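Supplementary Methods. Inverse-folding protocol.

Structures were first reduced to a discrete structure-token string of length 328. This string, shown here, constituted the complete conditioning input.
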């Protein structure tokens, strides 16, 4: 879906494609392409003479952040956070391409994200199409805010799942923890790529930044580093929780195996006694009309099994030696 936006009184106003010819030539335009189809990709490539390789990179889900200077435009690819409630991994990231022309900026994304929604809904104050570098930096600033917000939601979900696992360990909760750990890995990788993008914007001077843009860039770098540190910390916490419950599961398995081993050994002793007297050997105290031998062997099995069970469950007594102080 491709939407066209102009700005009036610092507010974005949506216009149709037919109205593009009616706007003033010096009016700046934001072309918002989200959830684009193959036909829309072909239209953007033909209408604005975009390189096919550029569009392939933007549509690649694993593309990292970067900025490049082309002949007629500047290309910047950013990694923005995406929340999909019904997906297996709810929190992920997606590349968003920003193609900057002298009179318009085109943002292209194969999916939808909260940052672009905030832009089109006028939730970001001070955003202006008169300064495209500042527009791009504001997108990165908003993405850092969303990264921090999603990170807090992730750690709350980790804590909630941890409390549920304390009561009973279920596979569903463990899979949820694994998916949240994947989300933190995606966030960490994307934040590091965005950090390299910010450094390249400052170092290469592909975008012409004024003093206000430089200050915004400094603030965005600080927020991005903070989000990186939070992602690393939360990732370590989630990994620790996963390892702890893996050890608990392993310990429970060892306890269960120990109980089964004790039971099998007790039954083996009983089986040995009954099989010994079953080899055509006359049972003690037994006659043709007496059950004494049967009850004797049964009692012997029960007594030997009980003794073996008690013996194998005895814990060794630890002797504690007390250090006696000698009085001089």
């Amino acid at each position: 879906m491709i939407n066209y936006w102009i700005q009036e009184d610092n507010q974005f106003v949506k216009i149709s494609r037919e109205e593009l010819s009616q706007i003033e030539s010096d009016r700046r335009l934001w072309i918002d392409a989200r959830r684009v189809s193959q036909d829309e990709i072909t239209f953007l490539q033909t209408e604005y003479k975009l390189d096919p390789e550029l569009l392939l990179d933007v549509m690649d889900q694993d593309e990292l952040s970067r900025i490049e200077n082309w002949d007629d435009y500047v290309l910047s690819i950013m990694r923005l956070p995406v929340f999909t409630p019904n997906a297996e991994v709810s929190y992920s990231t997606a590349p968003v391409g920003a193609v900057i022309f002298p009179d318009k900026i085109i943002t292209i994304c194969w999916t939808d994200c909260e940052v672009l929604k905030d832009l089109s809904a006028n939730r970001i104050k001070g955003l202006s199409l008169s300064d495209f570098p500042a527009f791009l930096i504001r997108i990165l600033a908003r993405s850092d805010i969303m990264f921090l917000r999603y990170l807090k939601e992730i750690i709350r979900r980790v804590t909630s799942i941890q409390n549920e696992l304390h009561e009973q360990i279920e596979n569903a909760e463990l899979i949820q923890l694994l998916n949240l750990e994947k989300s933190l890995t995606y966030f960490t990788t994307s934040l590091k790529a965005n950090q390299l993008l910010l450094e390249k914007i400052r170092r290469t001077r592909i975008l012409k930044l004024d003093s206000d843009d430089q200050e915004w860039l400094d603030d965005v770098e600080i927020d991005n580093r903070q989000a990186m540190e939070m992602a690393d910390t939360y990732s370590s916490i989630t990994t620790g929780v996963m390892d702890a419950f893996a050890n608990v599961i392993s310990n429970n398995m060892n306890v269960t195996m120990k109980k089964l081993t004790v039971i099998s050994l007790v039954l083996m002793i009983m089986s040995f006694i009954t099989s010994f007297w079953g080899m055509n050997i006359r049972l003690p105290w037994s006659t043709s009309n007496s059950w004494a031998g049967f009850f004797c062997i049964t009692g012997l099995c029960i007594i030997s099994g009980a003794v073996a069970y008690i013996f194998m469950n005895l814990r060794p007594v630890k002797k504690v030696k007390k250090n006696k102080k000698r009085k001089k």
